[in-house]
Amino acid sequence: MKNILLVSPFSDNEGLWVTGEESAEVRNNFPPLGLATLAALTPKSGYNVRIWDELVHGRIDSGTDFGFKVDLMGITGYKAHMHRCREVSAIMRARGALTAVGGPGVSGSPHDYRGRFDVLFVNEAELTWPKFLNDWESGKLNEEYRQIEKPDLEKSPLPDWSSIEADMPKYAMGTVQTTRGCPFDCEFCDVVFLFGRKPRHKPVSRVLEEVRAMRGYGFKSIFFCDDEFSGDKKYAKELLRELCALNAGLDEPLTFSSQMSIAISADEELLRLLAEANFDLVFMGVESPNDESLKGVNKTQNLRGDMLGNIHRILSYGIGIRAGMIVGFDHDKGDIFQSQYDFIQRSCLTSIGINMLKAPLGTKLWARLKREGRVVDMARNRGLGHSRSYTNIIPRLMSRVELLEGYKWLLEQVYSWESFTARVKGFVSLAAGTTGRSMRRLSSKAEKAAIERLRLSAPEGAKSNVEEIISHTMDTAPQLLRRVSALVFQHARYVQTIDALIPQVQRQIERESAGEIVLEQDDRALPAPEQFRRAYDELFPSVYKYMQAATADRELVPRLVTEVFVDFLVRWGEGFKSVEEFHSAYLKDICERAAAGVNGVGFTPPEWTAEPPAAFKTRYGDEIFKNIWMELADLRYRKASAH
Questions:
Q1: What is the CA 482 to chain-centroid distance, rounded?
Q2: Which domains does the chain show, CATH number per domain?
Q3: Sign of torsion, CA 33 60 71 79?
Q4: pLDDT tier at 17, thresholds 50, 70, 90
Q5: Residue 119 is inside which H or E element, if any?
Q6: pLDDT, tens digit, for every residue of 570-598?
Q7: What span, in angstroms and rounded, lies between the C-alpha atoms of 461 and 152?
Q8: What pTM value is reported for the model?
C-alpha cells in the first residue's frame, strides 16, 4: 500500500467569501476540486490517498502528523503559490517522500519548478496521472509528464472527497466544474494558453450529480469553477434549465455563482435563466471604461453596445457582479484613475477587484511587451510584498511610479464605505423589479435576524453606512435583503484586505522613487518568431504525418513533433523570414533522427512528403505550437542559468 498526500498550499485568503451565515469554522472558500479529481483517478487498490488543505488543516512542517508515512506528496497551485510549493517540497523530500507538482503555475512556467520537485505535471492531468502511477510502480519515472491533447471532460471522473468529507463545514461554498477553456482571447489572459479556446463540457447529467453531492455535504451555495460558464450558450442554457428544475424540488433553493463575460447582457433568455436558477453573483472581467484600452488587448466582447447599459441590464435581474478592473493598459493616461472611479460608481458594481496590468508568461501580452523591452523580471527584487502591490510591465503613457500612485488612490476611493454604500443602493434600485422563486422575501423573523446581524457586525466607522443600506433595501426591495447582507459582509472583508495592501503599495512607490527596484528585462526566451507561425502551419502537416507513420505509439507523436520544431528553431529561428528549400531538407533530417530515437537506428524511415493533402487537419496543431514555445523558453532559461 502506497500513501499519497495531495496538498493545497497555504496562501493569504484575502477573498474569503463571508455572508454572515457561515459557521465560524469556515477557513477557505472552496474545497480543492483538482485534488479531489486526482484522488478519483487513483486506483483504490494499492493506494491510500489523503487531501491536505493547508488553510484548513494547518501548515506542513517537519513534525506534521499525517497519520501515515507519506510515499508521494503531490501539490498544486497558481504562480502565486510557487514559493510555498517549493517550501513544502523541501520539507517532504527531507522526510523521504517523492514530490510532484502540477497546476496552472507549473504549466505556465515549468523552469521555475525544475530541480525543486522530483516530478512535474504540465497541463491537465487526467491522462498523465494514471501513466505516472504505472511508471511509479514499474520504477521508470520520468521527470516531467506533459499532456498535449485536451482531455475529454466526459471521461473525467467524479471527484473523490472521501478523505476530507468531515472537513466540508470548513469551506464556504461547494465546487463543481462544468467546462474548461474560453472562446475569447484577451491579450493579458493565460486561460487560452493553458486550456484552449474551444470550451469542453461535462455532460449535464454529470454536473447535476456533482451538484447533488455538494448539497449532500451541506453546502447551500455552489461555485462553478469554469473559465467562461456561458462560453457555449446552448450548453449553458440546457444546464440552467436543469438547475431550475432541481431547485424547484428543494425547500431551500441552492444559490450558484461562476465566471462569465459581459456578453451575457445581450441574451435576455440567458439572463432570465440565470436569475431563475438562483445565480446571485458572477465574476466578470469589466477591465476598463477606456474603449481604446479594451481594443488594444483584444477585449472585444466588452465593446458590443453600451457597457454601462449592459452592466445595468445584468444587475436588473438581481445578479450581482464581482468585477475585475485593470489600470495600466497601453492607452491609459494619467486621467484613467478618475475615469475608472467614476465608471465604477455609475455602474453600481457591488463587488470590485482592482489590479495593475501584469504580463503573465505565455500570454500574447507578454510576448508583445517582451519584444518592446517592457517586461521586467521582478524576481530579481526581494521584499516585494503581495503580488497586487507591484507589476512586471513598464507602462506606455505613464511612469511606473505614476501607475502605483494612481492605483493606490483608486483603491482608497473605491473601497471607502461611502462609495460602496452608493453602489449597493444603486444595485438595489436596479434590481427592485426582480421576481421569481429565488427572490422570495424572508420571513419577518428572518428579516429581523438578518438586520440584527448586519448592525452588530458593522465596523465602527461604517455603522451609519450600513444603516443607510438597510433602510434603502427595506424601502425599495426587501426581497433583496439576503443578497445585500452578503455584499456588506464581503465588503467588510475586502476592506480589511485593502487596508493591508495599501501600505505595501506605498512602500513600493517609495522603493521605485528611490531607485531601489531592479528593472532588468525578463530575459526568458521569446515564443517562436511571429513570422514563423505561417511557416509552421505550412510545415506542420508534413512533420505530423511523418511521425504518425514513423511510430506505432500515437501518444509519442505530439512530443516528437515538438522536439523536431524546437531543434529546427534552435538552428534556424533567429532571423527566420520564410521557408526555403534547404529548410525542408533539414526538417526531413531532423524527423528521421527523432524517429530513430524511438525506433532504433536500424529502422526503415517512412517516405517524406513535403506537400501533404491540403485538406489535412488535426486539432493538435495549436497545442503543439504552444509546447514548442515552452520548450524554447526552457532552453533559454537553462542556458542563462548555466552562466
A1: 29
A2: 2-146 (3.40.50.280), 173-510 (3.80.30.20), 532-642 (no CATH)
A3: positive
A4: low
A5: strand 119-122
A6: 777 766 778 877 777 778 888 888 888 78
A7: 52
A8: 0.83
